[in-house]
């Protein structure tokens, strides 16, 4: 759709770094046509129908090549800054992550239309996985400052990890490509992955003024209350602008199956083989590793060590439904 001339800039909210919502902002929607559930064309049809009925200005910016997500998101941010608009990400966790990474610190509001399997980020803030409901919540929404984590300067919304967990995610994606996207497929792929003896990492952890050596097959850093509650880890430290790290001590395959079952029944925090602690900044060195495979909101990449995990100094200005639950303080 066409756009009016850029509106006169208005004062930004100190809590979010973005202007307060007026209710008529144009939407710049970055849509990953190759991710998430269902048919991409049907998704676009729903978006057009709802926004046309509401009389809201918008621009759909579909992306069929994941390597173009970041560039398209940067373009959306530039246009939103000029038009006092909102950047919206439509897709799975990786899409939300890629677009949010371009929005953070740019002074524009961020909206989401979740299309992923678990939707931990959207559910945390009362954003429906049903596209039409999510759109209507976005149109009448309000801004909330949302805490995000950083790993070597790159944003993550839900979690970041290394070791066994990225391998679980890689195998899960392969199974989803073969058998479809469902929680049962995700669970089955995890069971198969654990049949292979995991490689142990020699970690040196530097946080809260202390050094700690730990051997573990995996380290996961969480930033999402719902996910931590789901596996049985106390999420209360998130309310204090902190992140929560979890690691498993060296164990055999049967014990790993036991940890998986405890996670499914929200009892991982009681497991004797699990170490968890909160921090605002964590440095991780890995003996014998200059590079390591990491996962951030389900997307796999390689990073140079040491790794630095920390809370972003700048919150993400997320558009949430007015009746969304209270979020963690940022």
UniProtKB/TrEMBL annotation:
Pfam families per the UniProt record, alphabetical: DAGK_cat (PF00781)
Q: Which residues cross the membrane?
A: none
Molecular function, one GO term: kinase activity
Key words of the record: Kinase, Transferase
EC number(s) recorded for this UniProt protein: 2.7.1.-
DAGKc domain location is 22-155
Cited Gene3D superfamilies: 2.60.200.40, Probable inorganic polyphosphate/atp-NAD kinase, domain 1 (3.40.50.10330)
* Coiled-coil stretches noted in the UniProt entry, renumbered to this chain: none
What SUPFAM superfamilies does UniProt report for this protein, alphabetically? NAD kinase/diacylglycerol kinase-like
Q: Which PANTHER family match?
A: SPHINGOSINE KINASE, SPHINGOSINE KINASE RELATED PROTEIN
Q: What is this protein called?
A: Lipid kinase YegS
* Classification lineage: Bacteria, Pseudomonadati, Pseudomonadota, Betaproteobacteria, Burkholderiales
Q: Which gene is annotated as encoding this protein in its UniProt record?
A: yegS
């Amino acid at each position: 759709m066409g756009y009016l001339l850029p509106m006169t800039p208005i004062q930004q909210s100190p809590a979010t770094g973005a202007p307060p919502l007026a209710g008529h902002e144009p939407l710049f929607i970055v849509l990953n046509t190759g991710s998430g559930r269902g048919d991409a064309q049907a998704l676009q049809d729903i978006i057009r129908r709802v926004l046309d009925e509401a009389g809201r200005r918008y621009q759909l910016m579909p992306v069929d090549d994941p390597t173009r997500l970041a560039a398209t998101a940067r373009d959306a941010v530039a246009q939103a800054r000029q038009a006092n608009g909102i950047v919206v990400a439509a897709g799975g966790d990786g899409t939300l992550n890629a677009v949010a990474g371009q929005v953070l610190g740019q002074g524009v509001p961020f909206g989401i239309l979740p299309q992923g399997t678990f939707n931990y980020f959207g559910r945390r803030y009362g954003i429906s996985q049903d596209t039409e409901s999510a759109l209507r919540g976005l149109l009448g929404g309000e801004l909330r400052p949302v805490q995000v984590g950083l790993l070597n300067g790159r944003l993550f919304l839900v979690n970041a990890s290394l070791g066994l967990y990225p391998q679980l995610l890689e195998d899960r994606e392969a199974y989803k490509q073969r058998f479809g996207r469902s929680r049962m497929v995700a669970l089955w792929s995890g069971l198969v992955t654990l049949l292979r003896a995991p490689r142990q990492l020699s970690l040196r952890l530097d946080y809260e003024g202390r050094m700690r050596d730990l051997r573990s097959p995996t380290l996961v850093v969480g930033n999402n209350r719902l996910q931590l509650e789901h596996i049985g880890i106390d999420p209360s430290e998130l309310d204090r602008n902190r992140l929560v790290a979890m690691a498993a001590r060296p164990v055999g395959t049967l014990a790993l199956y036991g940890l998986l079952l405890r996670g499914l029944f929200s009892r991982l925090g009681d497991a004797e083989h699990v170490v968890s602690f909160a921090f605002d900044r964590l440095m991780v060195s890995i003996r014998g590793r200059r590079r390591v495979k990491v996962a951030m909101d389900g997307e796999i990449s390689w990073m140079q060590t040491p790794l630095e995990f920390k809370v972003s100094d700048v919150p993400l200005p997320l558009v949430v439904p007015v009746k969304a639950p209270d979020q963690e303080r940022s």
